[in-house]
Write a structure and sequence with these properties.
The protein is an alpha+beta fold. The chain has two helices and four strands, in the order βαββαβ.
Length: 61
């Protein structure tokens, strides 16, 4: 599974990094995906981060 962060929408709130630090990290005030593709063992947490993003900046394929 692949995750993408829309840099235009990201507000640097850190919810994604807090939910799934194995996959998401804040760099230069924006969230970035560290793993591509995301390994199966982190997918559930990454999906939770996507669901909890207050501006829906995270998408998955």
């Amino acid at each position: 599974m692949k995750f993408i962060v829309d840099q235009e929408l990201c507000i640097d709130c850190g919810v994604c990094e807090g939910s799934c630090p194995e996959v998401f990290e804040l760099v230069d005030d924006k969230s970035n995906v560290k793993l591509d593709p995301v390994p199966e063992e982190f997918q559930e947490d990454a999906l939770e981060a996507e669901e909890n993003c207050p501006v829906q900046a995270i998408l998955h394929e």
